[in-house]
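Here is the promised in-class demo. Please do not try to memorize the tokens; focus on the logic of going from shape to residues.
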């Protein structure tokens, strides 16, 4: 899971630095089809997989804190919580999530 997070994260950063925003392009598509609301035509799966794999990596890191030296354990805990918080913000503020939470 850690390697997946590193590879996808590196790919996303590289695309951002080169101006290629296609990995983030997941246009919301809303159409009324037979009375059904179809809202997510293309989800940015790379961002979704990155956030989930990074959160899993942070959870496993938080559980492994006990094997670290005693003086480093608080720092490792805080870093794992920070990483989980960042994953939450990635998922929460994706346009798709915002659309789902605020649709009427």
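The designed amino acids, position by position:
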């Amino acid at each position: 899971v850690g390697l997946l997070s590193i590879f996808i994260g590196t790919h996303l950063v590289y695309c951002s630095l080169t101006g290629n925003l296609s990995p983030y392009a997941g246009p919301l598509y809303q159409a009324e089809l037979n009375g059904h609301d179809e809202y997510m035509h293309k989800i940015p799966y790379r961002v979704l997989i990155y956030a989930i794999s990074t959160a899993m990596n942070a959870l496993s890191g938080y559980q492994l804190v006990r094997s670290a030296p005693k003086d480093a354990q608080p720092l490792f805990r805080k870093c794992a919580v920070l990483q989980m918080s960042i994953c939450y913000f990635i998922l929460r503020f994706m346009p798709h999530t915002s659309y789902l939470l605020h649709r009427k």
